[in-house]
């Protein structure tokens, strides 16, 4: 089973941006064809993650297996001015990317209905190992939703400690945005100081600066306001609680269809 991002080839910049995305992530690809590539993962883990550039579509979309996620997840009525384009990001970063830890989308509270949110969560919960991010200083489940799909075997056997990448994150957050953000979380060979020097426009998210710096990247695709690259600091090349998914299993909550995570916080329900 594959989680597929379909990106529209509707403007002339689309193909150049797609090639730049492929270049940026080339160290993490196991398969590349014309206008489609798949990220590296263990062959017995699903879902895998792929990106495709498509002629006959007007806006970005996400499909899990044969099931499309609600289109209202991806909206971009407003395009944000960003520090870099994908072409510029690929030129600066491609040699420093080690792996893709996870991809995902941050959904604006203004565009998603409670029903579409519930449908999205229920699709993921029925078909994948979906976990709620553990309660922590940076995450308040009463105000937001951070849900992670962990690639797993058909038997959902996560007892063996192994790399669990790339994950998929679905976020709802009441931040006043109008457009969907695609996020790509990357392991790098750079230190915190080196990222700050290489990318002066990068920044640290509250409570998460000890793990990565972020930078916003402009994209031409309808449905995506911009891409946020989260650039993790250089670490020993070993399996740990985060990249194995063990942290979620030990501390988080497995999301079931129609569970509480499928409902938005009371403030917007």
Question: Can you walk through the features of this model?
Answer:
The chain is an alpha+beta fold and 269 residues long. It has one domain (70-262). The chain has five helices and 15 strands. It has a nine-stranded mixed sheet. The protein has a six-stranded mixed sheet with strand order 2-3-4-1-5-6, with helices on one face. Helix 1 (13-24) runs parallel beside helix 2 (86-93).
Query: For the terminal residues, how far apart are their CA atoms?
Result: 32 Å
Mean of pLDDT:
91
Q: In DSSP terms, counting alpha (H) and pi (I) runs of 4 or more, how many helices? A: 5
What percent strand?
25-35%
Give start-end ranges of low-pLDDT stretches. none
- Number of strand segments: 15
Largest sheet geometry:
9 strands, mixed
Query: Rounded to an integer, what's the Rg over CA atoms?
Result: 17 Å
Features:
single chain; 269 residues; alpha+beta; 9-stranded mixed sheet; 6-stranded mixed sheet; 5 helices; globular
